[in-house]
Each structure stands twice: as C-alpha cells, then as structure tokens.
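Known limitations

Files may contain more than one protein. Parsers should not assume a single record per file. Below, a two-record file is shown to illustrate correct handling: read the sequence, read the token line, then continue until end of file.
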Amino acid sequence: MLTYALRRLLLAIPTLLLISLFIFLMVDLAPGSPMSEIPRSIPPETRARMIAALGADQPVFVRYLLWLKQFFVVEPAYLIDGWFGTSLGGDQQRILSWQSRAPVFDVIGDRLGRTMTVVGAGYVIAAAIALPIGIYSAYRQYSWFDQLGTFVAMIGYSVPTFFTGVLLIVIFAVNLGWFPSYYDASLKVKDFASLSRQVWQMALPVTVIALFHAAEISRYTRSSMLDTLGQDYVRTARAKGALEQTVVIKHALRNAMIPVITVLALGMPSIFGGSIIVEQVFKINGIGGALIGAIVASDLPMVQTLTFIFAALIVFFNLVADLLYGMMDPRIRYD
C-alpha cells in the first residue's frame, strides 16, 4: 500500500501542475480587472504605476511561474518560520491580495477556523445521522421508516440551501426569535457562556448544511446496502445460522461502505472550501465569503490560490478514498 500511495503522490505532481496552469490562465484571462473601478480621470502614467505595483504588468507566464514559486516555496517557508522561529522566508515576496494588500494565506488562516467550525460540524453531524438511517432503511426496505427517510432525503437534497437557510431564518430567527439570523465572527470562546453563544449562533447554518449532506449520504448508503444484502455471501452467512446483527454489520456493511467512502471523501473538501451559499446567507466571514469577495473585486491572486487549494484537496481525498478501499475490502490489492 505504501508503494501505491507513493506512486499516486508522484502522479499527482504533474496533475496538480496542469490544474494550476489551467486555473491560472482561466482566471487571468477572464473579464474584469482590479483597475476597472478606477475613475477615467486618473492619468495614464498613474494607472500604469498602480498596475505595476500589483505586479499585473508582467507577462502571464512570468506571473504564473512567480505564483508557483510563492505557493510551493515562499509560503511554506513563512509557515515554518511561524512554527519554529526560523528565517527561511527572509524578505521574499509572498502572494498578496490585490484587494487588501495582505498575504493571501494570512487571510485564509484568519477565516479557515470559522469555516471549519461551522461547515465541519455540519458535515460530521450529517455523516453521523445519515449512515445509521441509510443502513436501517435498507434493512427495513419499504417500511414506514424507509419511506419517511426517503421523503425527508428527497426534500433535503432537492431544495437548495439558500432557500432552506432563508426559511429557517424566517421561522426561527424572525418569527420565533430563538436563534440569531447572522453569525457573529467577533465572538471569542473563553468560557461556558461564550461557548453556549457560539453553539447557539451555529445552530441554523449547521442544520442547513447537515440536512443537505445527510440526504445525499443516506441515499448512497441505502442503495449500497440494498445491493450488498442481496449478494450470495450474505445469504450464505444467514444459511449458516449467523446472527442477523453479525450478517448486517460484519458481512454486509463493510463491503457496502466502499461507494459511501467515495462520497464521504469527496465531500471533505467542502469543509475547507466552505458552503459558499450558506456562508453568504448567514453572513459567516469564512473561506466562501473570501472567494466571493475576491471574485467581485477581481482579486486574481486570492481567486487563483483558493481555487487551486480546493482542487488539490480533491486530488488528495481521492487518494485517501482509494487507500480506504483496501482497508474495507480485502479483495482489493495494490501490488
């Protein structure tokens, strides 16, 4: 398995380089410019100096190679400097946001915690709820529990998150006044009272995220379990007199989890990328808000960096899913 993982990691290097080039060119050649909002009364020489100050006057491939160096060399050096107090980064130029003139990774680090807290909690809750529901729905196919779970899952997956978020705000924030309608990013958890406020303000966005992801995961789990429960080896285990609990959990569930692992693994990057719509609805100042703000302001370094990070996470969690397949199914070999 180690050899397979190393081989996949080596293969991921040219893949990520090609993805980075595509993202950089696509974003760079898109309409819009940070200079578009500057009044026409500004003299041309002043406009040229402003463009040069942003580094936007260089040819596109020069800027791409500089961005690659900053992303893979300069930024990791600054990260190591922050951890161990070294000076590897020196005075090398970092990736700077055109909008705020702050280092892009500093902005990401400032917002990542909020996204991880809200979206991560919603995803974990979704998986914890959806897996048992999907397993039991498959085991009790066409029962009232299965029909109710199918109905709720259909609503949760088909209704867009912006509608669900607004609906919960209208009902529980405006009409009932139980929860706040927006997320207070300035709140710091220091004691039990502040922790209670944090959980209180997270309730609505976490519910929206959990409902959407739980609907998807439970449907995949149910479908996979139904297919596995009809296999010959499951019928053989029952014919040998194995306990029903052993048949379902030991024989059926382990193999049924293989396609579910794919769904869970590929959903993990959404924790880092954030649920952009939910963050906008509840005013969560997270990664999704940073991406939307960068797109509106034509902040190319921020858009390029965030988009590439999301792509790299998808490649990484694909590898994680492939490795988990071998752990769940002994028939899979990597040699």
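...continuing to the second record:
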Amino acid sequence: MSTPTDTTTAPPKEEKAPQASAIVSALASTERPQRPGPLSTSLTFGWRALLKIKHVPEQLFDVTAFPIIMTLMFTVLFGGALAGSTEDYVQFFLPGIMVQSLIMITMYTGHTLRTDIEKGVFDRFRSLPIWRPSALVGMLLGDTVRFTIAAIVTAVVGLFLGWRPGGGFAGVTLGVLLILVFAFSLGWIWTFLSLLLRSANSIMGVSMMIITPITFGSNIFVDPSTMPGWLQAWVEVNPVSHLVTSVRDLMGGTPVGSSLPLALLWSAGLVAVFGTLTMWKYRDPR
C-alpha cells in the first residue's frame, strides 16, 4: 500500500521591515508644499464663511429683511412726529439706522463661532500648521461681506423713502467703509464671548444687553440736545454716537469733525483689547 504524501508547506518567509532611511527617502522625494501665509489662510476661512451662506441661504435673512424692517418701521412710525414728514426725517435718520442695523447683525458672529466650537470644528483648526488667528480673522472678513449687503439694502430702502445724500456716491461709500471698520472691531467682543460662554443662546442674550444701550442711548434717532443732561453726557462719550456723527458728515457732504478720529480710535482700541483677549482664550480654551 502507498503511504499518503506529505502536503505540509514551508512557512512563508518573513518580510523585512523597511529601513528608516528608505522611509525618509520616500517622504523627501517630492518638494514639501510651502506653508500658507496669514493672508492666504484668512481669506480661505473667509471663503468658508461665505460657503455657509450657499448651503444655508437663510443666513441672509438678517442682512436683508432686518434692515428693511428697521428702516421702514422707524421712519414711517416716527418720521412725521419727529421731523414733520418721513422724507425730512430720513435725511437725518438713515445714516444712523444703517449703523444700528450693522451693529446688531455683528452679534451673529459670536453665535456662529460658538456653534462651530460646540461641533468640535475649532479643535481641528487649532491643530493645523497655520497662522493661529486666521480662523477668527477669516470668519470676521466673511461677515464683512454680509455687512456690506445689509448696508446696500438699507441705502436702497432709504433712496426709495426719499433719502438724498449730499456727499454723493463717494460720501456714501466712505461712510459704509467706516461702519465696516467699526463692525469688524466690534466683532472681536463677540468672538471673545463665544470662547468664554458655554452656549450660543447665552451669547445672543449678553450681546443684546451690550448693544441695546450703546445704540438706543446714542444720537441715532434724535438730536441729543432734547435729552436730559445725564443722558447727554452718556451720548457724548458713546462710541456709537461718534460713529454716527462721522457717517452723517461723510454721507451728507459736510466737513468731518473730531468724531472721525474718535471713531477710528475706538475701533483700534476694541481690536487691541478684545483681539488680544480672544487670542489668549483661543490658545488656552480651558
């Protein structure tokens, strides 16, 4: 009888682990991409903020419907009582309501950032080899586009109501640019609060507590000379009052006084203080 054939196979040869030199050679075989600069990364994050609007177009509601409602409501309701006619009142009122509309929209910056933080997106941003503030700066730059849309909508509604700026297109453009500078600076307050507070709803609540007194307690709606003395003292030091006065001068084609450098000084101060606090909290989120 024949014996069974031995079918046992030889064990496979062990593969040698790649040498460290081979790994380094493979990784270094191509040129390493150049690290992006601060401007490039900031613009990228700004584009990311605009892409959110593309996917969630409801975000444009606050920069379109809100300015229309504010302008029409205050002009039609109070114009006749305060100035005799809506057309006369809108000449005084429109630069101020443009300032108020853009300032109130800025609080959504903090709300959006807090939402990203809760989703864990910014934990990934912190780990990227990029300029650290670019995620925040880019978000504020993206919001600047939204603010520009709100300013254009307000101006169009004002023209429909009879607003005729004496400064022409150049004066209106300079006034809008000044508002955008201040809105960008004010946004750093909300970014700091978004890193400090625990929910998006709490940011909205605190933001309204700050925005309400600085907008309604200003020269947006009426001449401060009709106010009580203690309120006039607040209006005179209120940064929003300096901003509104400068915007009125620019859009109205009248000489710009000391309010313009004060508004720019306030803008620089907000960035210096709250920009620094934001980056401190951004580096150490504990």
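Parsers that stop after the first record will miss the second one. For reference, the second record is described as follows. The two ends are 82 Å apart (CA to CA).
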